[in-house]
Protein 1
Amino acid sequence: MSTNEVISILMLLTLTGAMLIGFPVAFTLAGVAVLFALGGSLIGQFDMFFFAAVPSRFFGVMTNEILVAVPLFVFMGVMLEKSKVAEDLLRTMGQCFGKLRGGLGISVTLVGMLLAASTGIVGATVVTMGLLSLPSMIKAGYDHKLACGTICASGTLGQIIPPSIALVILGDALAGTYTEAQLAKGNYLVEPFGVIDLFAGALLPGLLLVVLYVIWLIIVGIGKPETCPPYYESGIEGRELLKQIAKALLPPAFLVIAVLGSILAGLATPTEAASFGGVGAMCLAILKRQLSRVILIDVLRTTTRISCMVFGILLGASLFSLTFRGFGGDDLVHQFLTDLPGGFITAMLIVMGIMFLLGFVLDFIEIVFIVVPIVAPALFTFDINPVWLGVMMAMNLQTSFMTPPFGWALFYIRGVAPEVVQTSDIYRGVIPFICIQLLGLVILATYPDLATWLPSKIL
């Protein structure tokens, strides 16, 4: 093994160790890159000329129109959270399914799906549903583990169901890598691939997860009815119930159709649709008389904080990947994956396994910015569909929100759960849903058309 290969491995180990200690990710990425670059330059193993590309990389991030959609979608999601859309949906859906065993859990799952399609922010969805639905589920006699697991799982649907911030970030990362890989193979007629393709490809797999969650809740309701008894508020039926359903469902449904439909139909780019969604979310807040100066300032502060975190990590990861490439680390990973016995299947299993394990300690944004630029070029040498690969990665990364010990959804639900709910209930409650997500991943791997069919029909 050459000196550069040893240094590349040490870079990855140092990065992992520093993040496990608790250093901020953005500064860790940039700091490790600079330290190894300086050390490598002193021993003659790194050419500092690589850093001449840093300004152009940073400027490329600043001028990337697709990434403008990130703060816009964040604004849209936070504004919808403040406008109490989730509260109305949960109350209405609870009336629809409350007479069924597990009906309240099914209601939470369906509302999670609707919020995922209208906000795309996991944290906001989990916190909102934890505050609104967890007390009702406990009051109804739900098993604490099942209640917490259902809320966490339905909240993470915002990761895979478009429009999703995760899909915007992942799609942008894969688009450049895919083009470079095709040009490296001498294929100069590269089929366009971008965020819109990933939005279309992720829609059916996201709905598949919803169906699997509902099936599981039905099975639990039949096998262990005492863990999810029916819960129904009498007095609201028939025409009055239909009126409430229309009032709660139509506004967010219209917003979803307008935003996602315009993207998939090719009428607007993700950035343009996100800006429309932000204005639409404000209009819903005005209609519900929830928009005030205080709320607007709170939404803007939250949007700024989340956006700064995302772009800080992106710039740090850009510096890290540049240094890693300067040591030849990308060639090392490429050779390792392409020389494996079993070819593509083995390489894909290893990459998916690494991403799943990293989800125990890292956030999806960190995994996307660190892992994707390193492993995607090697995978694209096997002539795989970039949409399918992107959706596979997105569904895999969805588990990072629920895998202990650092799953963000676990922290969110712990922060809003009453004291009667133990932390062990939360950790044990998500295990069946993690297994369901892995089952969905296996189904998607077996039937790639779930991800590739819709983009081929509408794009």
Protein 2
Amino acid sequence: MRIGILTGGGDCPGLNAVIRAVVRKGVKAHGHEFVGFRSGWAGVLDSSAVELTVDSTSGILPRGGTILGTSRTNPYKGDADGTELVRRGMERVGVDALIPIGGDDTLGVASRLAAVGVPVVGVPKTIDNDLNGTDVTFGFDTAVQIATDAIDRLHTTAESHNRVLVVEVMGRHAGWIACHAGMAGGADAILVPERPFDLDDVCDHLRARHARGRSFSIVVASEGAHPVEGALTTKGAQVDEFGHVRLGGIAAWLEREIEQRTGYESRMVVLGHVQRGGTPTAFDRVLATRYGVEAIDALSRGESGVMVSLRGTQVTTMPLAAALAEPKLLDPDLYATAEVFFG
């Protein structure tokens, strides 16, 4: 077969490891040919592609980002006939099947294509770790390590200045990064999308901590965290081609409100894109490699409409439709464990 690979949505560490694994196993074990579509689904629609070989993908294992580029292009935006557009793009470069690497939006497109007969095997990618079809997504471990390192460094400056530091991390719908990094970094409060918070309770918690002689605090908040009164206003906010509002601003709001309500000097730190930049951890390199190998093996076995998945210690496949049915939210038991150490 001649197979097209693409990376869609936000970049994250481990994408290049998947590309390398797919190509190397596909060429050496199955005799396939590969092309890489540039900039996600945009490259498929435009037939913008580059040949991928064992030599051209050599040395990319430790590199962050994606050598193919990425975008949030939606072939089905508006009333577009995305299926026909994708098929034409594939035909122009002689591609028989697709391996898209991405999150729920990228794989949502893949699921629609598979439903009408396009051969496709998806690889799950999101640093938020909120894809329900797999125990862990690659990139998550790297993001948690970066956030933990930042929190470790912020402890000393918070203590030196007797400040409350609010650290905003990624996590639109799920608080996996905030919870893991907050636990690992010894945060004094963790705010996540799954648990709307009462700011008065948060401030009381910080006051109690200060009353015990602790003159500084670290608050970790997911970008999608929100108070019980409702989400922060997004009126006029930008949206992507899949209709997602651009998030951000919770740390600035918390900084202002905490300082006004408690009198404690507060500062915010937004980690932003640094969480998904740079080289992947060893765990993410290995997981991404295993995903890539299983993806090309599954396609070679004739599977389609499936996504590779980590279940326990085994990498297997599961139907895309089932994997995308609902997001994987933060485990309440894990959050309960984190709460033991607040303050």
